[in-house]
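Batch queue: ligand-bound targets. Current item pairs a single chain with guanosine-5'-diphosphate. No template structures supplied; prediction is de novo from sequence plus SMILES. Inputs echoed for audit trail.
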Amino acid sequence: MKARKTSAAAGKTAADPALEPGRRGVVVAHHGISVEVLFDSGEREMVRVKRSSGHVVGDDVLVRGEVLQRLPRRTELRRRDAMRGVHLVGANLDVLGIVVAASPPPPAGFIDRAIVAARAADLDPFLVINKCDLDSAADAVTALHGIYAGSVLVFPLSAATGAGLAPLRAFLGTGHRGAFVGTTGVGKSSLLNALCPEIDLKVGELNVLNYRGCNTTTVSTLHALPDGGELVDTPGFQDFGLVDITMQDLAAHYPGFEETRQLACRFRNCRHRSEPGCAVIGLVAQGRITAERYATYLEILDEVESGEVEARQRGWKN
Ligand SMILES: Nc1nc2c(ncn2[C@@H]2O[C@H](COP(=O)(O)OP(=O)(O)O)[C@@H](O)[C@H]2O)c(=O)[nH]1
Ligand SMILES: [Mg+2]
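Prediction returned. Tokens below.
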């Protein structure tokens, strides 16, 4: 792959790049100071960008000369890392695979947060239960199916044996562009390797660290799958914190609350905490929403509310 030189080094051509019609493409890899663009013509080229250019994998771009112009995004997926920094992880994704292992069980609320984040960003979430080859898997699958099958597609599988991969391949093959999120060790790298043999990701690596013990430049790549569909792989998908999710987003997208959309609470801005005439509390009382599901909602609500306070304080400072 040849790297494009800067315009100074390449020598100025007679034509003004701004007047060129431009070539359309999509950013398929990001290396910090350069991005790889796959053009509609099928050609690939490295194009230099500023480190802070804000381009991400999945961006549709128009390249004129040395200039990369980003076209409007259909979706943007953001995450907050453990240090509270906000990162844009992918553009124009339409599905998000939430990967958990059949054993050990996922941390409380992890699946719910990811479902809410995906839906709020206009992505369709789906659940992947990996490591179904383990002895204890059947109970975990039954439990997770019971909670989530009414809300999202569920794919029980084993990246190790390949069992159950076909339905996921077929789903992605219907033209979806997605990414996987999940805590370390659930098998995201193994799954990407199984779905897309050309990827060859290291399995069992916790993180990419450089000699100072810091994360090296994040390289994320958009891979075309052999049976159709595309997947973004990015090293930063372990700590997937919610970004700018409002209480309305949470209530509207929380898995298991779908039924309440047809019902109306007495107060339009009901937080479903302890308000009189709350439809959600009604369903909890009837046992149609379990106490456990409701408790997790309340925990995430606390988080969202502190996020709202923080956002207001940021607003005051600016
Ligand atoms: N039993 C079993 N182990 C798996 C499976 N998929 C991955 N693993 C193991 O789980 C560990 C973590 O896998 P990895 O793909 O690195 O997880 P990641 O941190 O989510 O990328 C490795 O030891 C894998 O060999 C599976 O389907 N079944
Ligand atoms: Mg990994």
